[in-house]
Amino acid sequence: MAPQLTGAPGPAAVAAVKPQFHHYHHHRLPPRHHHPAPASLLSKLAFWSVCSLSLLLAFLLLSPSSAPVAPHAAPESPRRSLHASPSSTASWGGAAWEKKVRASARVRRPRGHSVLVTGAAGFVGCHAAAALRRRGDGVLGLDNFNDYYDTALKRGRATLLARSGVYVVDGDIGDAELLAKLFDVVPFTHVLHLAAQAGVRHALVDPMSYVRANVAGLVGLLEAARSANPQPAIVWASSSSVYGLNSHVPFSEHDRTDRPASLYAATKKAGEEIAHVYNHIYGLSLTALRFFTVYGPWGRPDMAYFFFTRDILAGRPITVYESAGGSHQTTISRDFTYIDDIVKGCVAALDTAGRSTGSGGKKRGPAPFRTYNLGNTSPVPVTQLVDLLEKLLKVKAVRKVVKMPRNGDVPYTHANVSLAQRELGYRPSTDLQTGLKKFVRWYLEYYHPELAEKQKQHAGSNGKRSRGRNGSSSSAR
Question: Residues in domain NAD-dependent epimerase/dehydratase (predicted)?
C-alpha cells in the first residue's frame, strides 16, 4: 500500500520563496557625434570590429559548452528556475536504469493502466501518482526538480513516492531523446501531463520559462506520444486562468477564453489549441483539465494559503488584495479546491479517456478531445481564508490590505463543474475549513514539529478538561 502524502515530518524551518531576479548593469553610451570625419569613423569601426571578434573568439574557447559532456547528463542552466536545479546530476540510460523504469511502470491489477506522470515531484503530480499506485496501476514519474520553489520539498515528495515503488526519473520534458527512450522502454497506456511552469506573477520576472515549459514542453511531449506505438491517451493540466477577463460566472467550458489576463494563462490557452491540432492530425486522445486554485498538504510555497501560513507564524505582515470594483464584489475570491478532490478528477479522466487512434504517426480515425473544469463550486473571499488560518494557527495575522495590482491576477474565480459531474462522476466533497485544517496539520509537522506537538498536547488537555466538566455535571444531577 502506498503511503498517504500527509503529515510526514520534514525540515524544522521554511525559507521564504522568492522569484529569482536578474540584475543587469547598464553602461553609459559614448557621446554621439552627428558629423564624424570619414577617417575617424573607419578607424573606430575597425577598432570595434576587432574587439567584437576577439570577444567572440574568447567566448568560444572558454565556454564550458565546448568541453565534452557526459552522455544524457542534465544540461546546465544559465538562469535559475528555468530548467533543472543546479545541484542536479541527473543521468539516464543503461540496463539498471531500464530495469527500474519497467518495474515502476508494471501494472499490478487487472485491466490497470501504465501511466507516465510528468511533474511527478510537483504538488498535484505526487498526489496523483500515489493514488494511482495505491490502486495497482503502473506509474513512472518524470520531473526536472527545477528551483522555482524549494527543491527540498520536491525531493521529499519523490522520496515518499519511492517508498511506494514509484520511480521518478530526473529529467526534462524538453529532452526529446529521453522521452523517446521512455516510450520505447514502456508501452504506456496513458500519460498524465502535469509538468509546467506554474504561477501567474512569476511571468513578469521570467516570461520565457513559461514559453519553454508550457508551450515547447507540451509540443515535445505530444511529438513523443504521437510517434509511440501504441499511442497513449493523454490527460493534461490546463488552468482556470484561461478564463481571463471573462465576467460570466460560474465559469463554464463553453465560455470564451480568448482574453487571457496573464502570460501564464496565454500559454495554457495556447496549449489547448495545440492539443486540438495533435488530436485532429494524429488521432491523439486528449483531455484538458482546468484546475481551480488547488490547495492541501505538500502544496506549493508560492500559493497564498501557503505563504500566508508561513508569514503569520513568523509575525510578518501579509498582503491581502482588494479589487478596484466590478460587477461582482471588491473582495478577491477564489474557488479553493482540495487536492484529494482534484486527484479524483484526474483519475476519473484517465479511466474514461478513450483510446488514441493513430499508429505510425498517422491518424486512423476520430479520437476523443475533451475539456473539463475541476473546482469546488464554492468561491471564498481571501479575507475568509485568512480568518480560518488565524483560527487554526491560533495566531493573529498582521494584514496589509491594498488594491490589486495589474500583475495578471483576476478578482474572482468560480467553477461550473456540471460537465465533469455528468461525464466523470466528479463531486468535490471537501470544504475550505476541513481542507485547511489538514494542510495546517501537515505544515506544522513538516516545518515546525515542536509547535505541532505543543498543539497536540494543548488539544489533549482541553479534551480532558471537557470530559471532566461533563463528568461533574453528570454526578451533580
Answer: 115-352
Q: Which residue has the cell 490557452?
A: 269
- The predicted-structure confidence for 232-287, as pLDDT tens digits, reads as follows 999 999 999 999 998 889 999 999 999 999 999 999 999 999 999 999 999 999 99
Contact 150, 301 (CB under 8 A): yes
Tell me which of 148, 149, 167, 264 is the catalytic residue.
264
Strand-pairing partners, residue 286, are 234, 369
Q: How far apart are the first and last CA of the chain?
A: 50
447 noted as active-site residue: no
What is the grid cell recorded at 38?
570619414
Tally of helices (H runs) and strands (E runs) in the chain? 14, 15
User: What's the CA gap between 354 and 367, in Å, rounded?
Assistant: 7
CB proximity list for 68: less than 8 A, separation 6 or greater: none
Residue 170: beta bridge partners? 143
Side chain identity, residue 372: Y
Q: Which three cell numbers stand for residue 111?
A: 485491466
Task: Give all domains of the chain, ordered by start, each with its CATH number.
Answer: 196-449 (3.40.50.720)
* Cβ atoms 400, 386 nearer than 8 A: no
Rounded-to-integer distance, Cα 26 and Cα 122, Å: 37
